[in-house]
Amino acid sequence: MIQWFVQRRYEHVLMAARFYNQIWKDGDASLRIDKKSDVSKLFTESVGVSPTVASLDSLSNEAIREAAKYIEAFELMLSRDELHSASQRLMEAYALGEYLAPVATLSLEKKRRVATYTRDLNELYGTLQAHDYTKTKELADRLKTNAKDFPSSKVDSAIAAYTLASDLAIEEAKAHLLARESDKAAEKIRAAAEIWPTNPKLQEFRNLVNQSGGLVTIRNDFDRLLSESNFREIAKRQYEIAPAIQGDATREEAFKQIMTNLMKIEAALGKAQEFSKVGQSYAAWEQLAELREQFPDDPKLGRELELLAPKVADFTKALDKARQFENRSPKQTGSALAWYLKARNIHPQSKLADDGAKRLVQEILPPDDSSPTAEIPKTES
Question: Which of 66, 76, 103, 348 has most Cβ atoms within 10 angstroms of its Cβ?
Fold first, then answer.
């Protein structure tokens, strides 16, 4: 009976005690146990009396009732998503009566929820000890979501304090680095790493150190891209190039001009897209064609013109014919004017066609009639 009691098999103890009482009537008598044994010490030190059959029966009954209460409390807290308290009640029930029916028959899903919570909680303590506050924050957020009673105050305070201290140390290290105080920068960055070894800003600082050593390489890249007229790549790397060429007046002027030109091209592309959306392909093409003469090597501008070309083929053909006749020697003024007028008939708002026609009219008409107010005859479609 004592062996079963120590093993927490209380139901076996009850059956043995009841069977004993059916045969013998001395249940209140102390059991004969070696006083020097560990079992005797267990009862005398914890309970204060020597064990009897009746006391074992009573203690077993009490243990069964307590385990049932713990499981009942566990079920209630679990239903309320209070996993922290539920896990404590389950541990108490398990420690008291591992083999009792209420504990042994708990559903696997309920055990799994508590096991997941406990695993995350233990991992949280591990990440705190390792100063991995990124993972700690992730685990704390998950625990707060899953368990309404998760005690997060200490964890949140620790995360906020240590991450702030590490970030401030890194900012001080950056300031020392920019001031070329390498020793002080190294001291601050070492302190930041000790506080929070996985701080993402440590990588930013490392990149800053690498960049400060690679400024010459970046300047060489800028010169190469400039010689290749690869302005799009320069714009793509503008935030990398701008700090590297700071203080170099020649490179800065070239860089500013490139960015201004690309902004002009992008603005024209935006307007062209708006024209295309409302079905004004001719206006979209002309918007880009004017810029194409200034920036013949821009790939994006050329690609957009190629996409518009099939939609404006008749208009571009008329303009090309007009220019061919205008540029011939001797100049075919009448034919050129006719083609410009045809182009304007296709796209009445065409600035290219209108300017070409006005230019030829000024050559044809006498000086008195060639004023800017002279009207160009309209053609019928």
Answer: 103
Residues 344-365: tens digit of each pLDDT: 777 777 777 777 777 777 777 7
pLDDT in tens, 148-162: 999 989 999 999 999
Q: Where are the domains of the chain?
A: 2-106, 153-213
H helices present in 24-107, as ranges: 38-46, 53-79, 83-96, 101-104
What is the spatial distance between Cα 244 and Cα 212, in angstroms, rounded to a whole number?
9
Q: What is the largest CA-CA distance in the chain?
A: 145
- What contacts 24+ positions apart, CB below 8 Å, involve 11-18? 11/60, 11/64, 11/99, 11/100, 13/56, 13/57, 13/60, 14/57, 14/60, 14/61, 14/64, 17/53, 17/54, 17/56, 17/57, 17/60, 18/57
